[in-house]
Amino acid sequence: MENDVINLKSLSADAPLLHYNNWPNLAVTPKVRTITTKNQPQQMREVRQHKKQLAFHQSLAKSRFVFGGNRTGKSVCGAMETIWYATGLHPFVKVDHACDGWVVSLTRQVQRDVAQAKILQYLPPEWIVKTVMVSGSSFTPAHGVIDFILVRNVFGSVSKIGFRNCEQGRERFQGVSLDYVWFDEEPPEDIYDECLLRLLDRGGIHWVTMTPLKGRSWVYDRIYLRQERLQDLACFWMSWDDNPYLTKEEKQFLIANLPPDVLESRQHGHFVAAEGLVFPNFDLANILEPQILPPADAYYIAIDPGYRNPTAVLWVVAVGENLYVVSDYEVAGLTVADHSQVILERTRNLGWDLKQVRILIDSAANQKTSACEISTAMQYRNHGLAVDTNVNKNLAQGLLEMKACFGNADGKRSLFVFKNCVHLIGELRGYYWGDGEQPQKVNDHTIDALRYVVMDWQRIAPGQAVALNNLGQAKKDLIKRLAGKRFMSKKL
């Protein structure tokens, strides 16, 4: 059994007749189910709490995704949230009007057996005004397919819970305005988009509870990879270990009887294509909220230059054995002058002394382009960024070093990314192996920049400051800059 979270049956059926001003008195505190075993006396009840469910209900994001395995409690989240909005009795959100919403399932059968069943399980019959069926009898709605349910609410009026399934096609999802939509499992993208349009007029919200069995689907690309850069989005992961109502014996039975290739998604809610990831050990433990770090041993700026492809830049702090990526930047179609201005401004905003920063750039920046007879590296130097092209570009070794930093066999992590680095986080999550031993050469620009830093820091003893440009290198840079100026003056 999954967590009940709150027992609506304890509420009075007269509550809908009260005025909205009494809402604070009607709001209820989430309750946890008590379990009494045969060998345990009544006064020795064990109280259990599904913390991930409560975190979901407490979230104020307009778009919420729950990635959960089977039997993790995700469908209960969706059902309870739907009931709370319909009745106006949400314990964390002030619902101030009657709400109309949809519950969207993949098929009619899934609607009947899962989402519809959960709604009927937790919604007290005395709150139901009318049930309209697609098939079956309204006297036994659990055995048929429901079209909609009219529900009493605390405002003295009626809310509507409508049911849709994706077999009906996109056209069945047009033409109405809604306050909320609950997607039980991952819908087709066109139906998801159509439902978002239904929420537009009322500023509605939606939540998706799903086990990601379709691999790198549109949810993976649009939501999972981009979650840090999307506003008003919250993602939650639920595994068997999060559900306090699954016993150890039940979990062991499920593990023994499920194929290994789907266990990650069925147990933890992970995307099933994760076995092809270059960095499968990069997870939430490597992502940190922006914070003040201990005194640094080194400061890095790493640049992966491009024009048609974006120019990617990372700002990295080294503290002992650990590396922290504190900021990132990725833009295509701009000049070196434009990028340099951004780099200098952001470095000042971080409070870094540019003289103490080691600036790495892809060695390909030494080459001249058809558009300019001065190399990219020299252009950056002319704009006040003393870039060093002496980077280790050994791809295989660099990937191994990065993977070990994200988490070794002992679980030790030494490479962390601040949550605001949305470009890097998205690329790391979507970086897959291609044919042979090479990763897919797509969306890897900030990854390349990070690889330069990791390889450079690995050759420095932990705790030892990075040696910046020595006198000889500084002299060479000066000669190159002067040569560039002489060349440009002759051309003029």
Mean pLDDT: 81
- Report how far apart the termini are: 80 Å
Give the overall form.
Answer: elongated
CATH homology-level superfamily of the largest domain: P-loop containing nucleotide triphosphate hydrolases
Strand content: 15-25%
Give me the secondary-structure category. Answer: alpha/beta
Total helical elements:
14
> Can you tell me the residue ranges where pLDDT is under 50 for at least 5 consecutive residues?
1-45, 463-475, 484-492
- Using the coordinates shown, work out and report the CATH topology of the largest domain: Rossmann fold
Helix fraction, binned, reads 25-40%
Kindly report the spatial arrangement of strands forming the biggest sheet.
5-6-7-4-8-9-3-10
Class of the largest domain in CATH?
A: Alpha Beta
Cα-based radius of gyration, to the nearest Å: 28 Å
In total, the number of domains comes to 2
CATH architecture of the largest domain: 3-Layer(aba) Sandwich
Q: How is the main sheet built?
A: 8 strands, mixed
